[in-house]
Amino acid sequence: MNTNIKLVGVGGQGTILATTLLSAAILDAGFDVKMSEIHGMSQRGGSVSSEIRFGDKVYSPVIMKGNADVLVSFELMEAARNVDYIKKDGIILVNNHKINSMVTLNGKVPYPKGIEEDLKSRVKTYVINATELAIKLGNVKVMNVIMLGALVKAMKLEHLDFIKAIRENVKEKFIDLNITAFNVGLELIE
Amino acid sequence: MKKILTGNQAIARGAYEAGVHFASAYPGTPSTEILENISQYKEMTAEWAPNEKVALEAVIGASIAGGRSLAAMKHVGVNVAADPLFTFAYTGVTGASVLITADEPGMHSSQNEQDNRNYAKFAKIPMMEPANSQEAKDMLVDAFNISKDFDSIVLFRVTTRVCHSKGTVELGERVEVPFIKYEKNFDKFVAVPSIGRKLRHKVEERLNKLKEYTETSKWNYEVTNGSKVGVIASGISYEYAWEALGETVDYLKLGFTYPLPEKLITDFCAKYDKVYIIEENDPIIEEFAKTNSKNVIGKDLFPYTGEMTPDVIKRCVLSQNVEGVESNPEMFVGRPPTFCSGCPHRGFFYELGKKRKKIVVAGDIGCYSLAVGEPYGMMDWLICMGASFSSGHGAQRIFDMNPDEDRRLVSIMGDSTFFHTGINSLLNTVYNGGNTINVILDNRITGMTGQQDNPGSGFKIQGEVTTIGNIEGVCRAIGIKHIRRVNPNDLQQTKDAINWALELEETSVIITDWPCVLKKKYNDDDYDMYKDLWQTKDIVLEDKCTGCKACLRSGCPSLIFDADKKKVTIDSNTCVGCDVCLQICPFDAIVKEEK
């Protein structure tokens, strides 16, 4: 059986680095792995998603609705948008950070209220204050790696070598910060 | 060594291993990263061309001169390059040559869903279709062998999911291929009619040889699971079929797909109770299979449009719907892509929006096509690269002939689109005495595809400094008399230019001159030109903000309306201080942050 992880967020939040680190560690552990992302228009503040599937043998690089074991959402409303990708017994990890879209910014439609509660009523949900924690670490961008740490713990993947993946895929001056962020993420899940 | 690569990275690696000398491309999703990755290998020369036709022509020249060459483009780019392609298909190659077409079933970032497999049949050239990253690399190496052996350019067809998916790839080594000694060969390469007629026969001879070859190609093979049901698929559809149907069916996997292995397909069909042909978009394999076999099921069951993902296959073949967690539509609203904070297109569209009732806007392909959405709604049509100036001219002709219409055409394109095919379009307008307003949004980069350099950006693909194409100079040289250059972040200047152009009765050009907020590389001249480039952010004086929301009409994502306080705040993480909102605010409530 394959494990299917879908990461969603808003353009610029770093979903691609998170999937890159995840796939590097998984590949290193000897699994077959495929990942998929959509480029192009989605870079301009639109919704983005990337997907990773691993196991003994993976065919399709894409995860269909109802097939994700885990949904990792870097933004609150994006979790609500993508919740139908999760299997009925799957889990969701959501950063409780809100990013307005063009329609909520100009005040035409309010940013929906009660998303956390709604998610919890549908599926096992871990709410994580990753943006807040990243700001405390001094760089809001490492939110993605904090979320990765939480994901690794929730999926029981700690035995994989993520420190190596970070060292090999992150610019040198950001390596220590990312390792710290990863460890912060690990501590967030019981 | 094993690495995890996207299809595009794998294609670049394949080019490296195949000993390619020269590659040229124009950016276009999902093909862009092919050339970007090729440019990382110092053994190959990589060049951005101004358009796909030029890219392919450069590749043709490189082949004739004896080098191995490769052109890459998105599906609609092949339309632009079709002219040289169809004749190069006649002449054949000297150095082996491959054309990569990156198609977009599902149209994630494209204006149409054309199936470029049709080009192989149309141009009578061999075609290959990898299904994953490993095949993308291995097949590309073999594509160069086929090009050499059959004296033909090879069409290498990939799709978004092959280009942008990552999978494991076993790497090989580069094999250096010596240049083929150049000898003038009039009877092969000078496609005048007398020679064209001879070449025409050679094309048919070549096709006959390829028809034999395809039957035994290692890229076309059967996978037997002991089923009474067969599936024929190529490209990513093969992976989707396995995902959906697994070992419950037998497979005929096709990788060398033009000419189709007719005997292989007919023999395969004869062995099964029924055979599903699973292919995205056009029923190309199916149309052949149905001529010889009665047990074939294709588009009678599967959709013509979109991607043939595993859920589609499960639904069509097994009548299975996978149900996951139910979503609650009240918990999310739309999040369309929009202009970045500090995007230089914002000021221009804000001012143009005030003229909405008087004007018709002909759009084009690029970031500025996002002006189609909220809050601008500024686009009457969008056809293809470079079409705004020419289609705008045609529309203006009709409005001018029609006594009931009093509209002015404003045609809009970016710098990269202007260099791509916009120059010809503008030439047509000025030559024919047109009176449209032609706007070139010069942000000094190819933005939408991810900041690729172009003839106006000042840099080549590998970062070397180069000549900056002078857009204003080009406009003057082709005869435009009325040209204004404005800083689009200066709203008064922009407004004046639009008003000025609306009063003119001859072809006019407005060039908005400010770099893309994401542009990374600048040379010294740039810094002289753009002195205040992103120096200080803007802030809202809370006591002065009345909550009138006038600034929100700029559509800047850094402006956040706080519904409880009825005030606007500026997100300091994303604001770059373009000052557009500052100029819009009627109450002087937005000011420059103190440094």
Description:
The complex is a heterodimer of chains A (190) and B (595). Chain A is an alpha/beta fold and 190 residues long. Chain A has one domain: Pyruvate-ferredoxin oxidoreductase, PFOR, domain III (Pyruvate-ferredoxin Oxidoreductase, domain 3, 3-Layer(aba) Sandwich). The mean pLDDT of chain A is 92. The two termini of chain A are 25 Å apart. In chain A, helix 1 packs across helix 6 (143-154), helix 5 packs across helix 6 and helix 6 (143-154) crosses helix 8. In chain A, strands 2-3-1-4-5-6 form a 6-stranded mixed beta sheet, with helices on both faces. Helix content of chain A is 38%, strand content 23%. Chain A is globular. Chain B has 595 residues and is an alpha/beta fold. Chain B has 4 domains: 2-215, 3-Layer(aba) Sandwich (Rossmann fold), CATH 3.40.50; 221-318, 3-Layer(aba) Sandwich (Rossmann fold), CATH 3.40.50; 345-529, Thiamin diphosphate (ThDP)-binding fold, Pyr/PP domains (Rossmann fold, 3-Layer(aba) Sandwich); 538-592, Alpha-Beta Plaits. In chain B, helix 1 (7-17) packs across helix 2 (32-38) and helix 1 runs parallel beside helix 6 (133-150). Chain B is globular and about 80 Å long. The chains are: A alpha/beta (190), B alpha/beta (595). The interface between A and B is large, with 62 and 59 residues.
